[in-house]
Design brief:
The chain is mainly α. It contains 9 helices and no strands.
């Protein structure tokens, strides 16, 4: 019986396949435990061939973490841009909680990556935080010529969300359930924005 031939993939398709496999593994294990040997075996290629598409294991991990960050940001995009800011906020927060609950390892890897000392992981973390900040501001109709203290407050809130959700995921949430977590995050943002606007007056 002839051995089935494997479909030849273009370099772009193969790279995308390897990143997708890495992202799938990242959903259940930390980024530093995503093995290139396991990825190569799952893709049906040699370990050496994987490094034809990525200069190093570190480069592969950064590519996987970037794909995970982009997926998370896509989940935060409001499905109906015409709804008001509060409804958009609740929808985005619900999507965030649902996403991180289903992808704990990838979320924790992204947040912890900022503390790894790896400049590329730190840059990815800062890019992700900046994009989340912009989406929150856009949801509330903030204009670029608005008070500068408002983006500062929202960026600080994003950091609060990261730390609070990370603690909650690790089981240290002091019995706070999902709905209580959503209320906490929503109310804290509204309080910060009100405080920022008061300071700007």
């Amino acid at each position: 019986m002839p051995t089935p031939t494997r479909a030849r993939l273009s370099p772009e398709e193969r790279r995308a396949q390897l990143v997708a496999l890495g992202k799938e593994m990242l959903s259940t294990r930390p980024i530093d435990e995503v093995s290139v040997d396991d990825i190569a075996a799952a893709a049906g290629i040699s370990r050496g061939l994987l490094f034809h598409y990525f200069a190093s294991k570190r480069d592969f991990h950064v590519a996987v973490a970037t794909a995970a960050a982009e997926e998370m940001l896509d989940n935060l995009t409001p499905k109906d841009p015409d709804v008001d800011g509060l409804d958009q906020l609740r929808s985005s927060l619900t999507a965030l909680i649902d996403y991180v609950d289903a992808h704990r390892a990838s979320y924790l890897s992204l947040v912890r990556g900022a503390m790894s000392g790896d400049p590329d992981m730190q840059a990815l973390f800062e890019w992700t935080r900046a994009r989340v900040t912009v989406r929150v501001l856009e949801g509330f109709g903030y204009r670029p010529d608005g008070p500068a203290v408002v983006p500062l407050a929202v960026r600080g809130w994003v950091g609060f969300v990261e730390d609070t959700v990370t603690t909650w995921l690790q089981g240290d949430g002091l019995g706070i359930d999902r709905d209580a977590m959503l209320d906490l995050l929503e109310r804290s943002l509204l309080a910060l924005i009100r405080a920022a606007l008061d300071v700007a007056r």
